[in-house]
Write a structure and sequence with these properties.
Length: 197
């Protein structure tokens, strides 16, 4: 069975890659704490939306990761750590809102409910929000780095290719004549051919 997706970690972020075979990843929230090579991934997360999405995507694409240590200082207002705990415990509603999150903008837009469910099943979160002592963090990482079995399913690559809808519209009238062939809608700042009308 394949344990790690190709090109893992899938999404870029503020993290360091350690041992991809490790059972633990470390999220230091808004704190910058020196990384240990024994963790699969080690990095910060300051937002309750994109930050949480990146953690989920990079976790479920490596079946070796079974634990996530959440430590460091919480980001003010965004509450990324609280939101990570909430999505793991409660998931997301039909609008993509993290159920139970008190973060400022706790909406997940780029991953599916299936990806969230896989995250909930694959990992155990170790809530040590506020812990910044590197020695204590090292003890936890070393305790969990080899603990447990690989998740019994292949890695799940969960990146949506959401396409943004274009906001460009052709004006229905031009208020500035540029030439016989072109007019401009000064309110929209759009130049069009006269054939478009």
């Amino acid at each position: 069975m394949k344990k790690i997706a190709e090109a893992w970690p899938i999404v870029k972020g503020d993290y360091t890659v350690g041992n991809p075979e490790s059972r633990i990843a470390v999220v230091t929230l808004a704190s910058q704490i020196n990384s240990l090579p024994e963790a699969a991934l080690w990095g910060s997360s300051k937002t309750e939306n994109l930050g949480v999405e990146k953690i989920i995507i990079n976790t479920i694409s490596n079946s070796n990761i079974r634990y996530i240590l959440i430590c460091g200082k919480e980001s003010r207002g965004h509450l990324a750590g609280h939101s990570l705990l909430a999505i793991h415990a409660n998931g997301i509603d039909e609008k993509g809102r993290i159920v139970g999150s008190e973060g400022a903008i706790p909406f997940i837009e780029n991953i599916s409910r299936e990806a969230v469910k896989r995250f909930q099943q694959q990992v155990v979160l170790l809530d040590r929000i506020g812990l910044t002592n590197l020695e204590e963090i090292m003890k936890i990482v070393r305790e969990y780095k080899d603990q447990g079995e690989v998740y019994p399913e292949e890695p799940l690559v969960a990146i949506s290719q959401k396409k943004r809808q274009s906001t460009f519209t052709i004006p229905h009238s031009g208020d500035i004549i540029v030439s016989e062939e072109f007019v401009m809608d000064s309110a929209a700042g759009v130049v069009c051919t006269t054939n478009d009308f």
